[in-house]
Write a structure and sequence with these properties.
Elements: E1 8-13, E2 48-55, E3 61-66, E4 72-78, E5 82-89, E6 93-98, E7 103-109, H1 112-116, E8 120-122
Parallel strand pairs: 1-5, 2-8
Antiparallel strand pairs: 2-5, 3-4, 3-6, 6-7
Length: 123
Amino acid sequence: MAGCNTLSTMNTVTLRNTNHFPHYELPVGLIDTCSSGLIRSDKRTGDEVMTVWENTSNEELAMLWLWHNAEAREIYRLAPNRATKASLLTGMGIAVISEAQERCLSNQVITDQSASETAVRFE
């Protein structure tokens, strides 16, 4: 993974660590910062896949699981200057946001293809 040697040791998190994902209240203006609106999870999720998220910024980012019923749940925190390897399920709608800037940095549904690509990087 390019650029990963300059980051701290990769942190690994899995869905099996917990079954409690707290509700998350999205700031009102945040939805407008996503390029095409928030993409929700498929009604049924699929197999577990490993994904890599590289946060090269100096701020902690929040990863949200956007449920098909319009609930948002906080799933992970992406530490600054660190790559995080996370297990997710295909079909999960995931948004990564900057709380400090109230801005959506990424919004996608996890697929086998997106999981096998190079790390999603935030600067």
